[in-house]
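Hi C.,

You asked whether I'd gotten around to modeling the 308-residue construct. I have! Everything is below, sequence then structure, no commentary in between.
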Amino acid sequence: MDPRRIAGLLDAPGCRRRLAVDVSGVEPAVLAEAVGAPEGGQSPYARERDGTFAQLALARLPELVLRHLGVPAEAVVETDELPGGVGLWSWRAPKLRLGDVDVTVDRVLLAGDGTRLHPVEIRSYACLDGHADPTKVAGTARELAVTVAALRQAADDPAQVSTTSLLVLPRNFGLNPVGTTLDVAPQLRRLRWVLDRLVSGADRLAPDLAGAQLVDALGQVPARFGDGCPSCAVYPYCRGDAEQSGAAARAGATVANLCGPVGVAADALALAHGERPPGDETEQAIAAELSRAAHAYGQAVTRARESA
């Protein structure tokens, strides 16, 4: 699994379906065809621009790591093993693992200050007036947390790998590289929960499944529909499933958490309006909370109409 797929599990914590897809290593193209979502990709122009920026960023890395991390380096040095000391390295084809899961990456950029190693990540989304897209930065932070965890497992001393990393982005709409430090400690703490799930096992899909058979297998694995689902490759299937069943989670994670085990929107509304008696103490608490929310909504609508 690559860091992006592992990090993606943090978007939908507790979703067994997404965990099954990623742990089983289902090919993105096969999955996209099965669920009716064309596999995404970059245009030739975007790929060329990304390649150009990566080359420019690599050339400027010594300057950026000195400015932001205080690490002196004359150039990026190629290495085939986890480095140490002071310098700037590109570790080619590292063999990294998280628990029993292989982490596949082409290379890892590392800056060493003599005590700790700092991961360096080059991305092509823009930093506009000193601010980058928060959603994209959050995704990068999750992927860096995966890299940090894998590096710590590979190191003799886990403390050798720092959670303070350097993120390099193009300034505004040009190709001039700028750097900013990014602490991924919070994402690393969340990742530990995911790692526990990976190590303890998950639902597994047969690797040769495709088409209708893959869709049928997905339907056998429970899903947790929520705010992080649009970034998942199975989202089109789960969205249709949620719409067909009338799931309350279609309204977002806040509503889903409020409704708890009452997963169908119609049942939740019936509880809120007293049209369905609660089945147990849990449903009594949910009914009371939904009833208060419905009352507050009704008052707000009335005031809005009176002031119109």
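If it helps when you're writing up: The CA atoms of residues 117 and 161 lie 5 Å apart.

Thanks,
B.
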